[in-house]
Specification:
283 residues; alpha/beta; eight-stranded mixed beta sheet; 43% helix
């Protein structure tokens, strides 16, 4: 997202009672937002790869009515948390270390953890490491299932943006219908992000050991997989595999959404989450 959008979002969050806070990782600040119902259950958001917490503003404000809501702005993306110091690099393991620090020292216990794409992937890895600290995961089009080396190369290649045509090609994999405001406003921010070395170092540092395939059968944390079925970045078979393989997982399709259903069909996602969380509370 362009910086002017982030500024507007920060203003809206501040007016909604949210605070912008930070902790330090590798001599750089990592920002997060916190607000909502102070004594409510803890509700945490992990954005996906390249996304930032400010694109979730409407989502955070909505669930802040009933939850203590926190959202992490992972470093190196398009939000407020900076790229690493000059000469340093970020790897997948760094993003995971940030998530783990946040879980252990900031949130401490999470009742509901919502993650999109790599955020959902990271949520499930945290549940494997700290099963008693996470009550329920809602994974929106989560990444993290290894299918083949060719598929991994295909996804990495999509982030190799060298022209406007490459950008539009990438957008068509993310959305069922590309929002009109993405065409004029988001290209340069997205282009600059994908040209930054952080994109390559994170994507290229992903190893087979980071994937979820082997840990899914032992994950006891309840997982609700919400899948925008017009996602062509990842096939819906990936979401169904997670729901079938993890012992306490369920699959919830949204027919007319792409890779980011929380942006494309927010009202459907809100209603679905309300349903999921009511079912959870009733158990």
């Amino acid at each position: 997202m362009p910086q002017w959008f982030n500024t507007i979002a920060q203003t809206a969050l501040r007016r909604g009672g949210f605070e912008l806070k930070s902790f330090e990782y590798r001599a750089s600040p990592v920002y997060y937002v916190e607000g909502g119902k102070a004594d409510g259950p803890v509700f945490v958001v992990f954005p996906g790869f390249g996304d930032n917490i400010f694109s979730w503003t409407r989502f955070l404000l909505r669930f802040g009515r009933h939850y203590r809501v926190l959202g992490v702005d992972f470093p190196g993306y398009t939000g407020k948390s900076p790229h690493p110091p000059t000469g340093a690099i970020l790897r997948f393991s760094d993003q995971e270390a940030v998530a783990e620090y946040f879980l252990k020292h900031i949130a401490k216990h999470i009742d509901v953890l919502v993650g999109n794409s790599m955020g959902g992937w990271m949520a499930m890895r945290m549940a494997k490491k700290h099963p008693k600290k996470i009550g329920h995961i809602v994974a929106l089009n989560p990444a993290g299932v290894f299918t083949s080396e060719n598929e991994l190369k295909r996804v990495r290649a999509l982030y190799d943006i060298n022209s406007y045509a490459d950008y539009v090609h990438m957008m068509r994999h993310l959305w069922a219908k590309i929002p009109l405001y993405f065409y004029p406003f988001s290209f340069f921010g997205f282009y600059q992000f994908t040209r930054h070395p952080v994109v390559r170092t994170i994507l290229d540092s992903i190893e087979r050991e980071h994937f979820l395939n082997e840990i899914l059968p032992s994950l006891q944390t309840p997982i609700s997989v919400v899948w925008g079925e017009r996602d062509t970045l990842f096939p819906k078979a990936m979401g169904k595999f997670i729901a079938k393989t993890a012992p306490n997982a369920s699959y919830y399709p949204i027919a007319e959404a792409g890779h980011m259903p929380q942006v494309e069909t927010p009202e459907q996602v809100y209603l679905l989450l309300d349903q999921i969380l009511k079912l959870k509370a009733a158990r």
